[in-house]
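Support case: user asked for a sample of complex input and structure output to validate their parser. Sending the pair below.
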Amino acid sequence: MRANCYIAPNRVAIEDVPDPQILNPRDAIVRVTSSAICGSDLHLVDGYLPTMRKGDVLGHEFMGEIVELGPGVRDGFRVGDRVVVGFPIACGDCASCQRGLYSLCENSNPNAGIAELAMGHSPAAIYGYSHLLGGYAGGQAEYVRVPFADVGALKVDDGLADEQVLFLSDVLPTGYMAAELCDITRGDTVAIWGAGPVGQFAAVSAFLLGAERVIVIDRYPYRLRMAREKAGAEIINYEETDVLDALRETTAGRGPDACIDAVGMESHHASAALHAYDRAKQATRLETDRPHALREAILSCRNGGTISVVGAYGGFVDKFPMGSFMNRSLTMRSGQAHVQRYMRPLLNRIRKGEIDPSFIITHTMGLDDAADGYDIFKNKQDECVKVVLKP
Amino acid sequence: MSRSSTMDVRSVTEPLGVERVSQPNGAEGVARLLGWLSLGLGAASLGAGREMSRLCGVDDSRVARTVLRIAGLRELGHAATLLVPRRAGWGAWTRVAGDVMDLTACAMALRSRRGPRRRRLLLATSAVAGITAVDVYAAVRAASRPRPLEGERVTASVTVNRGVEETYQYWHDFYNLPRFMYHLQSVRRIGEGRTRWTAKAPAGRTVEWDAEIVADRTNQLIAWQSVDGSPVPNSGRVEFRRAAGGRGTEVRVELEVIPPGRKVGALVAKIFGENPQQQVRDDLRRFKQVIETGEITRSDSNPDGISVRRQMNQRPGQPLATPIERPVATR
């Protein structure tokens, strides 16, 4: 089959690889009908998350049709079912899964030993997301193996288009969880760094959860326009306006009640010098992640407020404003999305028409054009927000 | 294990009866000390070159002062190789090489020195010779790797999301062990409380031994020991405890390979691998997977399941080319 593979930093290519097969009783094989390129795929391809190998099949946002089932798959799945698959691989049986913390599944990462060396304890494995997180083949391919299919796959109705349900695999639950972690009470003001797909959905979700004002921060006018027009958010372009001043001003000195970092390890700063400082440290491995957005989120949050971190980080950051964080009684909550916890309720919201996630799609391409898609998405060409790939 | 420390405060691990495998680290200690010495010497030679050259009796020559300064720089290099890596291995040998250079320099300097300078230089030379002896000792000790399998005791633990009864029962059926202990091919009951263990050895061969259960307390503990005359004298015990708050069961395993002769030692290494500690830890991860999910977790890069031994040399994360046997449901 054809699959989009990691070749080297900044290089992906369509390669001919073997078809996946059932390896375990609870596996399913899914024929992919749509997959998407995620911002975190860019971190992998940019070379900021270690343990990628030449030939790794990428992609953790995908959906399709079950074409083969292992004998142990529970819950009445059938060949022919149309399913969307959550990106964390989760067994459903360990203590973490049973607490609803699916992205912390204790059994899905066969490379847990390496992850423990890097992070102390291992999180769940993720499709096509480095060997540190399992070394599983991803879904930017014609077919994909889905382990623990009864936990990872969600059946979707025929009435809904791929474009409406595909993002249940990652960015919609991630954005929703980002807002949920803020413990929003009615009337709250929420600021969101990053107007990519996760930031857009975080803005939509913050309103759904009762926020009165949502302010989205980015530097690309077309993305800010989307946040204003589709999500109804107020906007700040950090290349034109000082973010801390603007947030202090617009909240009359209080600061937002909650701040969401939907950017992660490759953030930018309006000051070329400050950006160069962290970029140089990253290049020389003095830090692995550039935390400009996170620093701003902490400094601008109101006293006693909450920082919600869903942008992807890989290792270590410098100049973390711990003094501000501690002295002002801030709370930080974070995590890879526990997708399986949110898929069903969010599917219901899509059915009811409360959310139509398809608004983020700007590009639909053939799988064979994946390399182009990565390029356009990374370099923010052609007003790109989200690329969907059709095998 | 520290029985008790000051004020009789006991370690939290002590009531568990877990004995930490203590690595002899005397050689490491000496190597570190030499590292700090290098750092001091290097800093002194660079920062107080004049005083150092007077001390060594070579303050009369510009060349000697330069040589001393270069030696100082080199000492900083030694310090880095000895202090930075987690295991000071070959770092100690770089110091020996440096000592040879220093002794040569001293011998050359001695040829042209008389009087008090010669006395001070002789003193410095003998100091270098003394340090050389310590360096050689440290290098030899640090480079010789400890032999891990002579009577080694390894321990590992895991928490499983299952009740104590189920966990104990699964383990008590010894024929379940090969499902998650990859070095075993089979464990069979042969009567009279005895079991026959068959382990995989390289080249498709197997090694067999008989073991007897020496302790069995329901839902608490199972201990076994190979019977006399076993080719691989070994013993093991597994303890089960209710986790705090009733959140699953804590499983603690302790395996010991009784000090074997050289030939048996090689056999043991073939069966248990280079790092038995790591292997037991992997076994327990697989045990957790099997008892919680009913299967061993396999990814495309680890089609055989978890194995730290193979982790450094994984296949890429793409589907296998060769067909495997279709798995059957187990629960």
